[in-house]
Amino acid sequence: MYKITTIPGDGIGKEVMKPTIEILETLNTQFEFIHKPAGAECYKEYGTNLPEDTIETTKKTDSTLFGAVTSIPQQKSAIVTLRRILDLYVNQRPIKSYTNPDINFTIIRENSEGLYSHLEVENPEKQEVSAYRKITYKGCERISEYAFNYAKKTGHKKVTASHKADLLPLTDGIFKDEFYKVATKYPQIKAEDYYIDTTAMYLITRPQDFDVIVTTNLFGDILSDEAGGLLGSLGLIPSANIGSNNGLFEPVHGSAPDIAGLNKANPIAMILSASLMLEFLNLTDEALKLQNAVYKVIDENKVKTPDMGGHSNTQQMADAILHKIE
Length: 326
Prior knowledge:
Blueprint: E1 2-9, H1 12-27, E2 31-35, H2 40-46, H3 52-60, E3 63-68, H4 78-85, E4 90-96, E5 104-110, E6 120-123, E7 128-131, H5 137-154, E8 158-163, H6 171-183, E9 190-195, H7 196-205, E10 212-215, H8 217-231, E11 238-242, E12 247-251, H9 268-280, H10 284-300, H11 314-325
Parallel strand pairs: 1-2, 1-3, 3-12, 5-10, 8-9, 8-10
Antiparallel strand pairs: 4-5, 4-11, 6-7, 11-12
Helix pairs in contact: 1-9, 1-11, 5-6, 7-8, 9-10, 10-11
């Protein structure tokens, strides 16, 4: 029996979570789903966007499925806080086009440091606010190690580091140095690096050149959304947050309040995030079955949500995927 914390959150997070759970229940009946609140609606009811009970539950279960939350100025980000508390130092985002074979790479993003470390200080006397970018040798080493290990396991031949060491010689200098130190242990895998602005350009002009990209927190966040433009929709991109003892899986898209409640959201990113969770739990057959079902639906090009240029709704897309599984 696998115990899974589910955090639907706000907006379309709820709408894509429900059919994903229904699909998982057809794949493997050994799941116990424990539903917990987080997000803006949670804040209105509990006075916090991330209750302590939600945090403790994620620590005790085998994995967590996370929908999407709306940020509120009174509170720190719920998802970033969970990543930090659970030490989910890896954010893994596979970028795969189902119509263009040249677009098939994975972004490995350091998930616990950088500008998302919640180190902001206000100085009213000087009328200024400072944000501190935390980078550690350990953090750079372990994310690079993960990237090369991932490349080795998946048969990729190259890992590309993206940084800005020319303007950030200390913080990104550490990242670049640790990357190449780790690379010496993997002589069979090519190691290269580009500045972040160059990477952003090449991502558009020559995406076929990338296998695995490893980078720091903020840069990885930006590159991932840019990659969504390559695919045409963020509704197609899943992600995994992985640590030494825990995993949290979420779609890249946000809560999308403008379409919440309209049954328009694309559930594919959430469903593929669930397939990454299955891989994490070593349920590889189930993961492959789910991925293949999604690929078949996309390949047939009959059922398409509005972000894909069609008129199908959330449930119709989920039903089509479920039909392929069955």
